[in-house]
Amino acid sequence: MIVLHLTCDRLRKILEQEQANGYRDRAVMGGLDRFLSNFAASNRDLVLPEAQYSTLDARQRGEWVASVLRHLDAGIGPVPDKTPASRKEPEASIFIPESSGRFLEAPVTTVKGIRTALAGKFEKLGIRTVRDLLYFFPNRHADYTRIRRISELYEDEEQTIVATVWQATEKITARRKRLTEAVLGDDTGNVRAVWFNQPYLARKLTPGTRIVVSGKVSVYGHIASFQSPQWEMFEGDDLTHTGRLVPVYPLTAGLAGRTVRRLVKENLDRWLPEAPDFLPAEVRKNAGLLPLSEAIRQAHYPDSLELKERARRRLAFDELLSIQLNVLARKRDRQEETGFALDADLGRLRGFLQSLPFDMTSAQKRALNEVGEDLGKSKPMSRLLQGDVGSGKTVVAAAAMLLAAVNGCQAVIMAPTEILAEQHFDTLCGLFRRAGGAPGMGKPIASFESGLPCPVGAGLLTGSLKDKARQEVVEGIASGRLNILAGTHALIQEGVDFHRLGLCVVDEQHRFGVMQRTRLRRKGESPHLLVMSATPIPRTLALTLYGDLDISVINEMPPGRTPIKTRFLKPEQRQGAYNFLRSQVSSGRQAFIICPLIEESDSIDTKAAVTEYDRLSKSVFPDLRLGLLHGRMSAADKEEVMRAFKKHELQVLVSTPVVEVGVDVPNATVMLIEGADRFGLAQLHQFRGRVGRGEHKSYCLLLAETASVEAGKRLELLAATSDGFLLAEKDLELRGPGEFFGTRQSGLPDLKMAKLTDTALLEIVRREAVRLLKIDPYLTRPEHAALGREAARRWDSGGELN
Fold first, then answer.
1. What angle do CA 790, 794, 799 make, to 5 degrees?
2. By the 8 A CB rule, do 715 and 677 touch?
3. Is 784 in contact with 772 (CB distance < 8 Å)?
4. Tell me, what's the pLDDT at 707?
5. Triad 671, 677, 681: Cα angle to 5°
């Protein structure tokens, strides 16, 4: 039996070498068919199929080799006949079993060469399974495709040579650095190559060895040399580290790029032939897409830039299609729900609307009418209300909430922070108070008995409420005595039960995962849903991520809003900015100073709020009243600081981005942003919206220590326009959806390949998603089942959009 194991080990090594060679039938002299024939004759305990390996194409060879290797990994015994039939393009009706591709979920430790210690390093990069490794795409590719002879080399260009090692020696420099220096040559000349801290190379690069070297050439004292180039043994055309478009992967401490490339390459060869393509053949044909295995291979090791882009397009299509299928399925499910229609006669709100201290804009009226129409239907409303900073979304939401209360229902607005929740509570109470209702109690409960179309009990529920106050609010919610609520995630906790929830309003909706919004809606029986965003969402992004929602846009600013003058300043203009800020404060105004970080960081060169607060208080504005606000402060401390700023007890507020939303101080006229190049356009626009909310002319000053040319152009664009939708489109284009929202949000899918600015691809994806769900609403047909499972898997593992 020992002999049999040794024989199988030899077979395994030969087949693995064949994988590494790209199934070119070069692993053994005379070809694999001759070897297998002799092998079968001398090892009758193993039953090998008649492979006729030389007649198979590369994919068929890969399938056969993978099946034999899997069997060898499982144990010694007869090898089943897995000889593939002549390959045909799969028809749309081909069924992919649910068990197909289960090896993709195997832990990464099952991969040859990855043991526990190395697996820990891969886990830091998010790689836990075979699938993760296959989908661990490079950040970029180094272009080593220019293959030249030594006499044709150019200085400071990426290029590749195939050369013979004449000698390789280890040296110690004057600064005690260890280096390996090799002299390489071809028939046109010689060149040197130098590697630092890799002494083993002096032993490995023996004279006469043929190697491939890729990198840049530098010239020192008329001597040309490659500095720390990539290299590998010359063993044919199937290169890994050199001579091609070479992947450059994200790394972590203790994980070398060569190691990652080698392991990824080996596992592409090992597993891709067995990876099922979940996309139906007719979809691939309609969209002109590569097969999945080819796309994954070309994404890692492209044969050309054209194939690299075709691979990206296929993988991006998969990502976007999963989003669309989930979004459209959610819309279908909600349309099948039965809720309760409200009496949505807006005439019942006439007194409230007339009491507003301003006339609603035509855009606000249009949005309120659209919301009213939805509330009057038995199908639960699912609507996105978006508009620029200060466009008046809260008034529309307040009117909708009051309409729900008039119908004997409860309405709730959920905000991502306590500051914003408290501001909503104060705003709602202020509006109800203006309508003539005399307030009963204050925060966290207020009641309004007159001047409104119905009595209103308003409540505030946040995590920082004391036990007694929280219990009083929770009991008021359960009894129905409180019918207008504002709060944070505390609203969706266990033990919070609504009497009759009719309308859920979610503010800054992109800061909540879908499951959080769902838990809020489950507090009632199919209540209506209105989600709001102060971040203008470009049409392409809204259509892709929120296609299950109807959309209302407030694209008109209320009259009287003072335009905000914005300037991009260089570091040497900082003192001038301080002088201007002081002059504004001397005129009775207030100012914000925004810093990207809470505390200083050794790795990030930018201003930190705590340090800046100390410096400004002592050295720059010692005579002014400064306050500090950041996310690590307790809710009570943050509220105290904001209350002091609103009451003008503080003149300057130094803050982190926590001030982006929820701070409304009409007397503030200066927004000075440090490290402005570290924020996106959409977020900077949100900061800017914190000023200009009163009658005084306001200013936004952008300061950046070392802004790149690209960052400078972004800041100049912000200074040139106040159109939030234009800025959002540009921000999405420049930074992608994850950074567009400031941080990785729980409900945002992980897009590795898709570009949400690719309108043409988005339209194709949406067309195919609509077509598929029209003919097979639940993707249960055999030809669609694999796609349905894949779409569900992606959301189960990568997001909350299921």
1. 160
2. yes
3. yes
4. 65
5. 70
